[in-house]
Design goal:
- The complex is a heterodimer of chains A (about 300) and B (about 325).
- Chain A has helices spanning about 1-15, 35-55, 65-80, 95-100, 125-140, 155-170, 190-205, 220-230, 245-255, 265-280; strands at about 25-30, 55-60, 85, 105-110, 120-125, 145-150, 175-180, 210-215, 240, 260-265, 290-295, 295-300.
- Chain A has about 300 residues and is an alpha/beta fold.
- Chain A has 2 domains: about 1-125 and about 265-295, Rossmann fold (3-Layer(aba) Sandwich), CATH 3.40.50; about 125-265, 3-Layer(aba) Sandwich (Rossmann fold), CATH 3.40.50.
- In chain A, the strands form 2 sheets. Chain A has a 6-stranded parallel β-sheet, with helices on both faces. In chain A, strands 7-6-8-9-10-12 form a 6-stranded mixed β-sheet, sandwiched between helices.
- In chain A, α3 (about 65-80) runs parallel beside α4 and α5 runs parallel beside α6 (about 155-170).
- The longest helix of chain A is centred in the first third of the chain and has 17 residues, at about 35-55.
- Chain B has a single domain, classed as ABC transporter involved in vitamin B12 uptake, BtuC.
- Chain B has a two-stranded antiparallel sheet.
- The longest helix of chain B is centred in the first third of the chain and has 26 residues, at about 85-110.
- The model of chain B has no long low-confidence stretch (mean pLDDT about 90).
- Classes of the chains: A alpha/beta (about 300), B mainly alpha (about 325).
- At the A-B interface, α1, β2, α3 and α4 of A face α1, α2, α13 and α14 of B.
Amino acid sequence: MNRQKISWLAALALLISPLVANAAGKVAVITPYLAQPGTQFYVEGFEAAAKDYEWDVNVIDTQGDVAAVISRIEDAVTQQVDAIVINVDPAQIAAGLAAASDAGIPVVGMDSGSDPMLVTNITSNGYAMAAETTSYVVNRLNGTGKVVMFVFDAFPPVQARGVIADAIFANTPDIEVIERITPDVQDGGIADSRAQMEALLAANPDEGSINAVWAAWDQPALGALQAIEAADRGDEGIVIVGMDANPQARDAIKAGGNFEASMAQDFMGIGSTAASVVARVLSGEDIKVPVIYVPTKLITQSNVDQ
Amino acid sequence: MATLRSVGTLAGFIAIIATFWVLLPETFITPRNLLNVSQQISMLAVVAFTMTIVMAMNDFDLSVGSLASLSGVVAAVLFTHDVSIPLAITAALLVGLAGGLLNGWLVSYIGILPFVATLGTLTIYSGAAFLVSGGKTVFGRDIPAAFGGFSRNGIPLDTLGLEKLKIPSLSILALLVLLGTWYLLEKRIFGRHLYVIGNNKEAAHVAGIKVKRLKLIAFALTGLGASIAGLMLASRVASANPTQGAGLMLDAIAAVFLGMSLHRSGEPHVLATLVGVLMLGLLDNGLTQLSVDSYFREILVGVILLIAVGFSALSNKNN
């Protein structure tokens, strides 16, 4: 019986062995968030590019477990991989980053936040994204009109977007920001934004008293759209812009109503750029910038389907 | 046939080690890697060791994972209010103890089945963890450097000729919990009584064993263990969020079952639990090093658990 059991295990070992690849460059991609759509695109983009470099890529999903990311980084270090790519907040995995750093193994971040122990972090530029949607509003209004802003200054990445919008609106003399609203986001951000917008519409009943809504992300833009449509003021030409181009926002833009524009991050591009950065590091290049931005795209009705 | 059980799983354990050793001759059985593994499994080990205490009575505790999360979050939130490290740790341990006492009270004094009682408290503790943290991760400057630093320190082994290596603090902590649990279960009358309860509750009553009180204490110790593990976890990631302990519960129960299949009597014993924990930890480590798909590891763990427990069941039948 013991022998039978051992043969079972031998069979298991045989089962594993073909799964063990044997390529020249070994790269471990470690994330707790593979179940999330954004992360899946990063990883897909990375894997597609890695194929060209003929690396052996091992994607490790710790299924939400951040402590396990540290353990798996330690294992990858022991395994002597050539590089590690992460998609997780570096502040929470300092122990793992230290292990990689001690072993001289480069770690590249995919939209993970900056950290001195990372070679670099590849992400989208929130400042640039905000500049695009704000310029869109200014141009659509021909530089004149009353604007409602939806912001969220408590969350640094979103706060950065608001700062740029503030600057551009302030630099346009005939644009007046009549309200700067911070919605309650506990319900996801749509419902409270809608309620706040309804109140504003009631307070400004005349056509032309509100010309545009600038939202720092898509949910408030969608809430404002619902409020405008519910108040039957959809034909006043109020221009709404959001950011992130989530599926619901894309549907609204496609429908051709007030919601006119949003910004799409290039998730696949973040992944493929991470791969090219790894290739540069492996060829001995010293990456000097701690953050590398991947271009984002303004989404309007004309390109929403692409 | 009785020896089969005691040797079968052990043979499997050795086979796993041998397989990895052959496939990874240079990086698997090395002091550095083994010290790494000892640190990686330390949190699971503490939960599994203390889980063994209630499982000795044939009970189990589903709430350990959420209790670990809750304890970590309590300490972290106290840190944000500038509470000192010793005070925050004490508070978190008291939360674990209280959570365990509630489990024990529900099971022994109210008489709810452990599965149902601890399923209920699992939800309560998890909700409490979200409530205390506001659903957010507490990290960064809010966590004192000394708290996060603990898990990165250890006893240096330079004097043994192992340059730059150290026995991780977390591993030492797990070892202390192992020793404490082993002493309680194997060397004290307390432990012997738990096994008597596990074998036959009625007989335990008749023999004059204070079943209710012992159950209360056993669950309290399991809760305390969960909070220790929760704090270790929070230190390792220098942060705390309301779900980070969730994965511990099923792995801990699996480790105890693996250990039970190792023991001749089919009873859970803490040294056998250690073998179960090591099996799970070495599998994670070895399969990662072999670049095996992380989802495949889960299937493999399930298969190994079923094989081990299946062999025990078969040998029982043959007896």
